[in-house]
Automatic annotation (TrEMBL):
Record SUPFAM superfamilies: HSP20-like chaperones
Keyword annotations: Stress response
Pfam families: HSP20
Species of origin: Pseudomonas asuensis
Annotated ranges, domain SHSP: 30-142
Keyword Kinase: no
Family label: Belongs to the small heat shock protein (HSP20) family.
PANTHER family: PTHR47062, SMALL HEAT SHOCK PROTEIN IBPA
InterPro entries in the record: A-crystallin/Hsp20_dom, ACD_IbpA/B, HSP20-like_chaperone
Gene: ibpA
The UniProt record lists the keyword Amino-acid biosynthesis: no
Name of the molecule in the record: Heat-shock protein IbpA
Length: 156
């Protein structure tokens, strides 16, 4: 069965969105079989987000967070056994290695992380720079009533 499809019609009337095609294709290739460890992605207001990862039995030294080229990666290696040997009669708390990756949208920055009560909280904030914010464009030199007009030959 061929699951490939073309997104070309979606990009006909857009400029600079060609990287979204790559995002869709990579999302289709991702394996959805791994659900360890469980996590939530929460929205706390218009520009504040939090990723909460269940990290039962892990210490801060067992976890590694990294942001590279817009991808947040959370890794944990297999925990080293202590000096004393333990025989588990039942081992329900997983201690296996994991790697989670989250693609961050433009202007999303990681503001901090904390480990509390077995939950890893990663706080994210959207900070849009001034040059990326919307601005009004005058048509034929016409300006709105609340703006100062700029005449030909004058500096703005």
């Amino acid at each position: 069965m061929n699951t490939a499809f073309s997104l070309a019609p979606l990009f006909r009337h857009s400029v600079g969105f060609d990287r979204f095609n790559d995002l869709f294709e990579s999302a289709l290739r991702n394996e959805s079989g791994s659900t360890y460890p469980p996590y939530n992605v929460e929205k706390h207001g218009d520009d504040h987000y939090r990723i909460v990862i269940a990290a039962a039995g892990l210490a801060e030294d067992d976890l590694e967070l990294e942001v590279e080229r817009g991808v947040l990666t959370v890794k944990s290696g297999r925990r080293e056994k202590g000096a004393e040997s333990v025989t588990y009669l039942h081992q329900g708390i997983a201690q296996r290695a994991f790697k989670l990756s989250f693609r961050l949208a433009d202007h999303i920055e990681v503001k901090g992380a904390s480990l509390k009560s077995g939950l890893l909280n990663i706080d994210l904030v959207r900070e849009v720079p001034e040059e990326a914010k919307p601005k009004r464009i005058a048509i034929n030199g016409q300006v709105r009533a609340d703006e100062k007009p700029v005449l030909e030959g004058q500096a703005a």
